[in-house]
Amino acid sequence: MMKLQRRHKERSPVSLTPLIDMVFVVLIFFMLAGRVSAPMPFEAKPPESDQERRARNSAATVYVAVEGRLAVGQTKTTLGKLGGLVRDRRGDDGPVRVRADEDAAANRVIAVLAALRNADIRQVRLLTKPAENS
């Protein structure tokens, strides 16, 4: 009887390159697809409200700081330039959001609202946070 020789299969090394490629593709996808919110130009903690409706996204958000500083998005501005800057940023994209600090002077917030009204911006939403029920 003749002995048959066994064939030894050579093991091919496992290549991790395709796995690493896929990880990078997924990472890049999530970096591009995920929305990272822009940081506020300065701290503006909104006042509390009993209303629980959430504000929609807006093309323009006006920030009012405690000491009265103003910004539209990341651009710091003055009260005189506010209306034009918001009109340029907003286009016809719905309401403008005003995020005023809860400790900001009421007269400053009223002046901001008046400047927006004088710039013929009629849809304005004042952002608040839900009141804590203790």
Kindly describe this structure:
The chain has 134 residues and is of the alpha/beta class. It has a domain at 56-130: Nucleotidyltransferase, domain 5 (2-Layer Sandwich). Helix content is 31%, strand content 16%. It has helices at residues 17-33, 79-90, 106-118; strands spanning 48-49, 61-64, 70-72, 75-77, 96-100, 124-126, 129-130. Helix 2 (79-90) packs across helix 3. The termini are far apart.
How many E strands? 7
Spatial strand arrangement across the major sheet: 4-3-2-5-6
Cα separation of the termini: 92 Å
The succession of helices and strands, N to C, reads: HEEEEHEHEE
Task: Give the integer mean of the pLDDT values.
Answer: 79
Shape: rod-shaped
By CATH reckoning, the class of the domain at 56-130 would read Alpha Beta
Regarding quaternary structure, what we see is single chain
β-strand amount:
15-25%
Helical coverage, percent range: 25-40%
CATH architecture of the domain at 56-130: 2-Layer Sandwich
Query: What is the fold-level CATH name, i.e. the topology of the domain at 56-130?
Result: Nucleotidyltransferase, domain 5
Largest sheet: 5 strands, mixed
Return Rg in Å.
28 Å
User: Would you tell me the structural class of the helices and strands?
Assistant: alpha/beta
Low-confidence sequence ranges: none
How many alpha or pi helices? 3
